[in-house]
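My hope is that you will study the record closing this message with an eye to the fold:
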Amino acid sequence: MDQYFIIDFDSTFTQVEALDELARISLKNHPDRESIYKQIEDLTNASMEGRLSFTESLQARVRLLCANRDHLKLLISHLKKKVSTSFSRNTIFFKNHQDEVLIVSGGFKEFITPVVTEYHIKKENIYANTFVFDEEGNIVGYDHDNPLSQEGGKVKLLKELNLQGDIYGIGDGYSDFQLKESGMIKKFFAFTENIERQSVIEKADHITPSFDEFLYINKLPRAISYPKNRIKCLVVGDIDEEALAQMKREGYNLRHKETIEDKYLEEAGVLFCDEANQPTVEQIQNAGRLKVIGCFGRVASRKLSEAACAAGIIIFDDPKDNPRNSDFIPKRVIAFMNEGRTHMSCNFPDLQPPRNNNAHRLIHIHTNVPGILAKINEVFARHNINIVGEFLVTNAQIGYVITDVNVGYETTVLNELKAIEETIKFRLLY
């Protein structure tokens, strides 16, 4: 059966509400701009939360805009920089599913089309309102006959389209939920990467903090193998807020604790700690999910560093109170988690592989004994898998291998790589 993906634009495909942003551009020099901004934002939220009909909200917002074609050009440039992070990194999904992805929005084609077509979305699959202009290019209204300008417009549109197959809806607002309520779609996913509307979340089939999560749940191809929102980042000690903000923007699930307790460390994929709060060697040895430690200060001892290395856990540290560490540590951690880069680690061999967007990247950490690379490659050869690139570095304790392979292989391949006797840690990166 065919599948279709109905995706909202404002606060879903993009991080912002486009009409709100247009108002900030068009009313920049208006003496009452702050008051009008607030009115437009309140009208947007009232509609998205189901407290005001969409028709009433749209009419009132357009009247307040005082915008023209030149303002729209500025808005488009702005919106292209505001595409939601998890959408922008999954361009390959849109390229491979051009016939199944539909943008359905109460916004306007004039600013939606230039943004989403850069992600391989077909113009004929973009459904939105259209502005009406006067001879000078000023926005004076919109097409009231378009079903998307009316209350329940998304439901009306889908009835007209009569798509045959399983339909999945992704959005942040009440109008997106109405598709599920009407029985028109199989599942509604409340998208919360940019905003959480409680009235919408309560009615969703699934809450998806990122597009990665949506793709993961539905077993669809994605840029990263495992959604960041499912990876717990344990935070202990005095950690700079800017460092934590970077991790939040990446989508990690931050958990703050006073001390490093075993039960929380054993659940964590990432640990942020300061110089006064570091795990013990025993805790490191029992932290089966832990992949990386970001220490804001120096690691307590060489023994701790070596224990982490032996367990396949990389550490990035920086001198205490170094003004760069609020930026240095999270960037190093993110580069390791996203691309496998180990540069500037205090306990892993140094490797900075280039990203390969047309391959799958596999990371294999093993005890440093002869012959492991041959065993890895023997698995690939036996399954006729083409290696696009391969990188091996070692230190006294471990071997660290990154292999980029062509897509298209059985999961048994991954199981065989994990089963190599000297394996410490293995993961599919993307």
About this structure: The chain has three domains: 3-217, 228-339, 360-428. The two ends are 27 Å apart (CA to CA). The CA atoms of residues 292 and 314 lie 5 Å apart. The chain has a mean pLDDT of 94.
